[in-house]
Design goal:
single chain; 351 residues
Length: 351
């Protein structure tokens, strides 16, 4: 499991650059809607590609799950996945305490790092946000918005999406009720979280027993507030997004590359926002169903009824530990592209 490593946090703090102001364009208005449209376009294509199996899914008995219960299950899966803690294992409480001890040892340095990350990224302006939107569009459509010609590719993808929307309304999804359009993706999310937790989907009573055993878990106290951990997460994500453009930690020699990338991104995202604004993606049950397709594609939907067995309302709250898990993930995801390896002497590390 990743630890909250004080030596790595200290090295990151020492390595933060002091950059001058750069010529970075502002984030184009409506750029976020372009990323949302890209996500919907990809979902509609997925819905159409699953047309045959989708018709069978519409006849599945879908359990009535609460959004709050599913979110709690996903929070447990997040903590397990990011911190490597077996949340349904007998050792879960001890592992949670070990992770909290690791964080609390590193908390002073991490707090300094969080306070310094914002000012270090300030000269980069909207570049990290534009790179994040580009990454989202690339994940949906395979289009890198920092490359020449990206706006034309985006327009072609949106034209295809509009054709898919028409076809979707003529598919079995057109007759889906609003209740099922919400319930099917919710069940899929619950199944995916259950898979991540290693729950026995084929044995509903055993699954219910494992989840019931987690009700006694308590989250150990953390020395950092959610806001302080959020500062670290946001700053590390920003640096991680810029690292491929800068060739590592942003530096003076990398400024021309960062400015050129920002200019290309701004032009392409502005064009993409205009294209997205011209699309008519009216909200309908079939559109809601399409939006849930990423979760549905990944889930073993034949086990959907199994999710009716456990009482999701009795799950423990992950509290600040979920925020800590997100911070660990941001550090683990970004540090390798920014730092050389540092041996970690933290005896509380459970890696």
């Amino acid at each position: 499991m990743p630890c909250f490593c004080q030596p790595q946090a200290a090295q990151m703090l020492a390595a933060l650059p002091a950059l001058p102001a750069m010529e970075i364009p502002a984030l184009p208005a409506g750029a976020g809607s372009a990323a949302a449209a890209a996500s919907m376009a990809a979902a509609m294509s997925a819905a159409l590609s699953m047309a045959a199996s989708l018709e069978a899914m519409l006849g599945l008995p879908i359990p009535a799950l609460s959004a709050e219960g599913v979110a709690a299950l996903e929070a447990m899966a997040s903590v397990e996945g990011e911190l490597g803690i077996g949340m349904t294992a007998p050792s879960a409480q001890a592992e949670l305490s070990l992770a909290a001890g690791s964080l609390n040892l590193a908390a002073p340095t991490l707090g300094e790092l969080g306070a310094a990350l914002g000012p270090a990224a300030e000269p980069m302006g909207a570049l990290p946000e534009m790179l994040a939107l580009s990454a989202a569009i690339e994940a949906s459509l395979g289009i890198n918005m920092a490359l020449p010609g990206a706006a034309a590719s985006f327009e072609a993808a949106m034209d295809a999406a509009m054709e898919a929307a028409v076809a979707l309304e003529a598919s079995p999804a057109a007759g889906v009720s609003a209740e099922l359009a919400m319930g099917l993706p919710l069940a899929a999310r619950a199944l995916n979280a259950a898979l991540a937790l290693g729950l026995p989907l084929g044995d509903p009573p055993a699954m219910a027993a494992e989840l019931a055993a987690t009700a006694e878990l308590t989250m150990p106290p953390l020395d950092m507030t959610p806001a302080e951990m959020g500062q670290v997460s946001a700053g590390m994500v920003d640096l991680g997004l810029v690292a491929p453009v800068a060739g590592g930690m942003p530096s003076l020699p990398a400024i021309p590359a960062m400015e050129a990338t920002a200019a290309e991104l701004a032009a392409n995202l502005e064009a993409a926002a205009e294209i997205a604004a011209s699309m008519d993606l009216s909200v309908s049950p079939s559109m809601s169903l399409a939006a849930g397709m990423p979760a549905i594609e990944a889930a073993p939907m034949e086990f959907a009824l199994a999710m009716a067995a456990p009482e999701l309302g009795g799950l423990p709250s992950m509290g600040d530990m979920q925020v800590a898990a997100a911070m660990a993930a941001s550090f683990e995801g970004s540090a390798p592209s920014l730092l050389s390896s540092v041996p970690c002497p933290n005896i509380f590390c459970s890696a």
